[in-house]
Specification:
The complex is a heterodimer of chains A (91) and B (582). Chain A is mainly alpha-helical and 91 residues long. Chain A has helices spanning 9-37, 39-42, 52-90, and strands at residues 46-47, 50-51. Chain A has one domain (9-90). By secondary structure, chain B is mainly alpha-helical. Chain B folds into two domains: 3-305 and 395-580, Sodium/glucose cotransporter; 310-394, no CATH class. Chain B is globular and about 80 Å long. Chain B starts with a helix and ends with a helix. Classes of the chains: A mainly alpha (91), B mainly alpha (582).
Chain lengths: 91, 582
């Protein structure tokens, strides 16, 4: 996702906010979207013997939460490195 | 060997391990005592967080609640896991970077005000004590059912163990004990779940099993359960009866509350650096998800088993577990149609809902109750939801060692959470109230002594809650989340992500959030419980979900007041810049 190797604090912070916003939209869609708001609609489809909306509410959303945190950990690792490179260059 | 003997052995061994770990990891400084010297590995911290987080409520009660709520039970599943995403993305790394001991530390410093710190301490103590009380009840239930000791003796034993390792090792001792407790509790949760999944569906993975076909029957488990429940006059298991807005708000209140719970947040102070704080939130959620994805499977297996093993079965031939739990008053049966058989149906079997036994036996040997039979339904059975997980291995006729294992697991869950909570309470007293507010020149040695003393006081109060449970405890535990969501979460969140919010804004926000949420709950739960139904609720939102509205109000008020008052001073802006860097 990151093309730049060097980031200043405000760039680092903005990139961080963009990442968090994107991840939280998925978080919202998976739980409040699929598990609550569209649950009745999704229930017309079946998924491994579950109604799809029910599966999202009791299983799927939780798996997605775990994936989201690990995506965040990896992306932030890259951001942190870019920020550190910039700092070293400055000093 | 008998179940009871096996239980003594399992519980005895696990307690021995906890004590051994406690002796090996004594705390020598306040840093050791409060935050384990910041030396905990992310995976170990993930396990400790998971054990800290998964309480008697998660282990004992949750699957039972879902079992009776069907799809509506997913508010707990999503609410209590989704909060970790917020914690990992919005709070944990920054609070670790800030690098102090407690949550009030952060709020007091960021909002440059002792008053803000004290408000945070009050919120923390209210939230944590309601929570501890629930743990002690869990300990009492397990001891009285499986070890057949008096509930009070059980609570005293539990208090003694927690006191010993919390006072000796502080956060360091608690952390490594919690790692062991996680292993015990997750093993104890999975073993019966896997057995039951194989018995019912032939699939060894419970997460897949409850979507599978039932053995010797072409039907899928969930549609079979839906069918049975519809026949008995219930709503189908896989559809909900709560309104969408209420489900939305309860889930949000639980998520935000989870992210704002002090005993969970403080766990992220114990790791070496920011990256480790992020990682341990990830590991914590994996370890939690293992139990949380199993729970709904256990819930549906248990509901099906319950109907199949007792519906239309004569009381004389009822399974042994039914009578065991009746003996301690968590199951009751009233033969409404005088056919000698147990019948389930939708609705509460009697008025009032909880059975009152009169110490006499009926014609079939059942314990008689003084409650009146409710006339609008044919339900004859009262089942306390807390027994589902504990009774599940017996209902599925699993071997005695599995039952003993579940008892040890339930105790691990209750004790690990109680210890974590007691530690944040004592830290708030010795560090935030004494060292940082009222006795600023306290030496480290004295502070450590006060920390240990306040754990002693907190353990005694928690024990008293367990021995003399106030009637409101069970109801209040769920509200701890609403309060955390409406007070602590927004204050921390805005403290990191906004440079505009100042001390006036944050204090007003926390107070408004606290007062609004608390009064809504008190109004509907204690003053006018007869009006506690959706037609009287604000926008159809139940007291369980009102914390979400409280949080929105908090954000709004903080923002408005911060606009009208002077911005935070420059040194605070520098602190914010500092914590935003990795």
């Amino acid at each position: 996702m990151m093309t730049e190797k060097n980031l200043k604090l405000d760039q680092y912070w903005k990139a961080n906010l963009r990442l968090v916003l994107r991840l939280l939209s998925v978080w919202f869609l998976a739980s409040y979207g699929c598990g609550i708001l569209f649950v009745e609609f999704l229930d017309q489809y079946t998924f491994f013997g579950f109604k799809l909306g029910f599966w999202f509410a009791q299983q799927g959303s939780i798996y997605i939460f775990v994936i989201l945190i690990f995506v965040y950990i990896n992306q932030m690792k890259k951001l942190d490195e870019a920020f550190k490179n910039q700092k070293e260059e400055e000093s | 060997m008998s179940v009871q003997l096996l239980t003594y052995i399992f519980v005895g061994i696990s307690f021995g391990i906890y004590l051994y770990i406690a002796i090996r990891s004594r705390a020598n400084s306040t840093s050791d005592f409060y935050i384990a010297g910041k030396g905990v590995h992310p995976i170990a911290n993930g396990m400790a967080t998971a054990a800290d987080w998964m309480s008697a409520a998660s282990f004992i009660s949750m699957a039972g609640i879902i079992s009776f709520m069907g799809r509506d039970g997913s508010v707990y599943l999503m609410g209590w896991t989704g909060g970790y995403v917020l914690l990992a993305l919005l709070l944990a790394p920054y609070l670790r970077k800030f690098g102090q001991f407690t949550v009030p530390d952060f709020i007091g410093t960021r909002y440059y005000s002792s008053f803000a710190r004290i408000v945070a301490v009050i919120c923390l103590i209210v939230v944590s004590f309601t929570y501890v009380a629930g743990q002690m009840r869990g300990v009492g239930i397990v001891f009285s059912r499986f070890l057949e000791v008096d509930i009070n003796t059980g609570v005293l034993i539990g208090m003694g163990i927690v006191f010993f390792y919390a006072v000796l090792g502080g956060m360091k001792g608690i952390t490594y004990t919690q790692v062991a407790q996680y292993c015990v509790l997750i093993f104890a949760y999975l073993v019966p779940a896997v057995f039951i999944s194989i018995l019912i569906t032939g699939n060894p993975i419970p997460q897949l099993g409850f979507g599978d076909q039932v053995i010797d029957d072409p039907q899928y488990l969930l549609s079979k359960l839906d069918g049975i429940m519809t026949q008995l006059g219930f709503e189908p298991y896989t559809s909900g009866i709560k309104s969408t807005i209420d489900v939305f708000c309860i889930t949000a209140a639980l998520m935000l509350g989870t992210a704002g719970l002090p005993h969970v947040i403080v766990r992220f102070f114990t790791v070496p650096d920011v990256a480790a704080a992020r990682k341990s939130a990830g590991y914590a959620l994996i370890f939690i998800a293992i139990l949380y994805t199993t729970a709904p499977a256990v819930a549906s297996f248990a509901r099906l088993n319950l109907f199949e093993s007792t519906h239309n079965v004569s009381y004389e031939n009822a399974p042994k577990w039914f009578k065991n739990w009746e003996d301690i008053g968590l199951i009751a049966w009233k033969d409404k149609n005088n056919d000698g058989k147990i019948q389930h149906a939708n609705g509460n079997a009697f008025e009032p809902v909880k059975p009152k036994f009169n110490e006499k036996k009926g014609v079939y040997g059942e314990r008689l109750i003084t409650n009146a039979a409710s006339k609008d339904n044919n339900n004859e059975v009262y089942i306390d939801r807390d027994i589902i997980v504990l009774a599940n291995p017996e209902i599925a006729q699993l071997p005695p060692w599995v039952i003993a294992l579940v008892a040890a697991g339930a105790l691990a869950a209750a004790l690990s959470t109680a210890a974590g909570l007691l530690l944040v309470i004592s830290t708030a007293v010795s560090h935030d109230l004494l060292k940082k507010t009222f006795a600023k020149n306290l030496s480290e040695k004295k502070e450590l002594l006060f920390a240990r003393l306040s754990i002693l006081v907190a353990v005694i109060i928690a024990g008293l809650f367990g021995i003399y449970p106030p009637a409101f405890v069970a109801q209040v535990v769920a509200f701890a989340f609403g309060l955390a969501a409406a007070t602590l979460f927004p204050a921390i969140f805005m403290g990191i992500f906004s440079k505009k919010i100042n001390k006036q804004g944050a204090i007003a926000g926390m107070l408004i959030g606290l007062i609004f949420t608390l009064s809504y709950i008190i109004y509907f739960k204690f003053l006018y419980p007869e009006m506690n139904s959706s037609e009287y609720w604000f926008l159809g939102i139940s007291p369980e979900g009102i914390g979400f509205i409280g949080m929105l109000l908090n954000l709004f008020i903080s923002f408005l007041i911060s606009l009208a008052t002077p911005p935070p001073p420059n040194n605070i802006i520098r602190i914010i810049d500092e914590i935003r860097q990795p």
